[in-house]
Amino acid sequence: MNENLFKNVEAKTNVKKEDILNLARMVQMEDLNKEENLRKLIKDVATMANRDLSKEKEDRLVQAIQNNNAFQIKK
Asked: How far is Cα 39 from Cα 57, in angstroms, rounded to an integer?
């Protein structure tokens, strides 16, 4: 992968290349049709991005992803 891409992402988000690659591996290995796995992924991403994640927001993300409406998530 392009090292400049990772450097740009890290500079903007403070998320390291290793964390991104670990996340990608997890996505490939886990069955995200299982709600438990999907919730873990959402929580891990929020933690990596240093973002607060309320239960309500987590629920909305899970529902949107499961319904293939991920682009319709409202803040």
From this structure: 11
Measured distance CA(38)–CA(35) in Å, rounded: 5
Cβ neighbour number for residue 33 with a 10 Å cutoff:
8
List, for residues 23-69, the tens digit of each pLDDT value: 999 889 988 889 999 999 999 999 998 899 999 999 999 999 998 86
pTM metric for this prediction: 0.76
SS (H, E, C) 20-63: HHHHHHHHHHCCCCCHHHHHHHHHHHHHHCCCCCCHHHHHHHHH
Q: How far is CA 32 from CA 40, 51, 67, in A?
A: 10, 21, 12
Q: For residues 49 and 13, is the Cβ–Cβ distance under 8 A? A: yes
